[in-house]
Amino acid sequence: MFSLGRLLDHMLQTSIRIINIVTTNYDRLAEYACEQKRLHHYTGFTYGFFRQLSAPNEITSPRRVNIWKVHGSLDWFKSPLGDIVALSNIDGIPKGYEPQIVTPGTQKYQRTHLEPYRSIINSADQAITSANSYLCVGYGFNDEHIQPKLMAKCLRQKTPITIITYALSDAAKRVIFEGGAQNYLAIERGGTDEQSIVYSSLGKAPLIVEKNIWSLAGYLSLIM
Q1: In what side-by-side order are the strands of the sheet with 18-23?
Q2: Domain boundary among 80, 101, 130
Q3: Are residues 61 and 122 in the same domain?
Q4: Which of 100, 111, 169, 201 is buried deepest, with most CB atoms within 10 A?
Q5: Comparing C-alpha atoms, which of 28, 111, 126 is closest to residue 69?
Q6: What is the pTM of this model?
Q7: What is the pLDDT of residues 99-128, one digit of tens each?
Q8: Same domain (yes/no): 144, 198
Q9: Which SUPFAM superfamilies does the record match to this protein (predicted)?
Q10: How far apart are CA 47 and CA 39, in angstroms?
């Protein structure tokens, strides 16, 4: 069972109606997690095997998970007609179709000014700006599409941010510890899988916990 699916299902049993996931990953793990728990999710496309770009209000649901994939997805392709479509569970790339993922390089930011990235990033920005708190799972704080608005909200409005990860990146440490964040909880793996190092804005020294709470599954054992 996907730990992410457990978390989303738990959250949507409260008064929360919409959950926003902003990810730089190309994989479809977030979609699989939603489908495993039978949760309605929206990625910018319609439903079905051959999916086309659509507005969020084209398909309504009382509860929804928005998955904003700012660098594209493994199932996004440019069709022979020139539009962007999504194809699910295919064995290979159909003839005439071109994968649509934004890889690191000189063309990265140029491509994100094109559709569907422009609309997806705009929706991600709105989700980040309107959020009351953040949970970052394995995020390295190395993406200029996401963290400026994220950290501006944390610094100016003291919005709570929780980070769980295998190892805090140097960029994450600079942003959180040296950047002036005032309401944070950061957890990384300790010396073993069953040890965690906890950093908090409430204390100056890190706390070593002899339990796995740095992974999503471990973190859920702490809060659920």
Answers
A1: 18-23, 64-69, 41-42
A2: 130
A3: yes
A4: 100
A5: 28
A6: 0.92
A7: 999 887 646 556 666 788 889 999 999 999
A8: yes
A9: DHS-like NAD/FAD-binding domain
A10: 13
